[in-house]
Amino acid sequence: MPARPVRSQRSQIYQADAQWLDHVKKTRQKLSGICGQCMQRKVRVQTIDGHTYEGVVVGHDHTYLHLSTTPGTDSRFWGPAAITTLVLFELLTIVLLL
By residue range, what is the domain housing residue 44? Predict the structure, then answer.
């Protein structure tokens, strides 16, 4: 059987729309600033997929929000507390809990 020739070109299968990309970057920057104002404060966060988390904001960067989750708020975590990492552009709401 003859060997197949190696393809020298790769075909692009996806490219983000420039307008969408600009919007995501602006939203991520805005959320990063909001998360900075919530450091060490208790919040309730809902994601665009409908998951809800409660905990204390213990860190953030331009991509992720880190929550120290309280027991019982998410059954996927074991132990008295866990650090939950959420992607900023997947957040729907952030509510400060008093």
Answer: 39-96
pTM above 0.90, yes or no: no
- Show the low-confidence residues of the chain (pLDDT under 70): 1-8, 70-81
d(CA 57, CA 88) in angstroms, rounded, equals 13
Q: How many domains does the chain have?
A: 1
From CA 69, how far away is CA 49, in angstroms rounded? 18
Q: Which of 82, 83, 95 is nearest to 52 (CA)?
A: 95
> Is 34 contained in some domain?
no
Torsion over CA: 70, 80, 73, 50 (sign): positive
Whole-angstrom distance, CA of residue 68 vs CA of residue 56: 5
